[in-house]
Design a protein that fits this description.
four-stranded antiparallel sheet, mainly beta
């Protein structure tokens, strides 16, 4: 009932200028962790199939470093394995098991300054916060402000929960409770919805 601990895992997000290409990366630990895409990227595949370690990398992670990855099907309330060739979009949440620590990399799209959107369905959704560069955390009530209610005035989100309850990043927060926790960019969270509503991310150039 509204209890939480602030996330303790540092976010290592740095910008690297490689000629005319900008990239943004985060470290993923060995074992189970969550991941989400905070901004629009050119390399939309989850598993890279070419260009690893270069500006031509066409996916987010090296498939040789990940034993398995899942996304959550909110419509059917079931896990679905992410396969080679599948894409990820801003605010998509992923649960993955890494063989060793490695880096997830986004090749940023400077032409895309629009606000990303994602439809959240009734019951559980696995999502991550959309934040502009320089913002590593954002309070849960601000991340979810667009789904507080539906356009017809029905209740939107009810609760936010961290998927990995056995780690130091335990988080359980109910709508309306005081002291909303900070949600980390790059990480994924369960959001319990009472009614469907569209989550709207931050509208800003990713290279600001």
């Amino acid at each position: 009932a509204g209890t939480h601990k602030k996330p303790s895992r540092a976010v290592s997000s740095t910008i690297t200028d490689t000629g005319e290409v900008f990239s943004l990366g985060t470290s993923l630990p060995q074992g189970w962790s969550t991941f989400s895409v905070p901004v629009s990227a050119i390399n939309s595949l989850f598993f890279a199939s070419s260009g690893l370690g270069t500006s031509a990398q066409n996916g987010v992670v090296d498939p040789g470093k990940v034993s398995v990855a899942f996304r959550f099907d909110a419509e059917n309330q079931t896990w679905r394995q992410i396969l080679l060739g599948e894409t990820v979009s801003p605010m998509d949440g992923v649960m993955l098991k890494s063989i060793e620590s490695h880096t997830a990399t986004l090749i940023l799209d400077p032409s895309n300054s629009g606000a990303p959107t994602r439809l959240l369905l009734p019951r559980w959704n696995l999502i991550g916060p959309s934040t502009v560069l320089g913002t590593d955390t954002k309070p849960a009530d601000q991340v979810l402000s667009s789904v507080f209610d539906t356009q017809t005035g029905e209740v939107g989100y009810m609760q936010v929960v961290s998927p990995l309850q056995m780690t130091a990043d335990v988080l359980v927060w109910d709508r309306g409770q005081p002291s909303p926790p900070d949600l980390e960019r790059w990480r994924a969270y369960w959001v319990l919805m009472d009614s469907a509503a569209t989550l709207i991310g931050e509208a800003s150039s990713t290279l600001q």
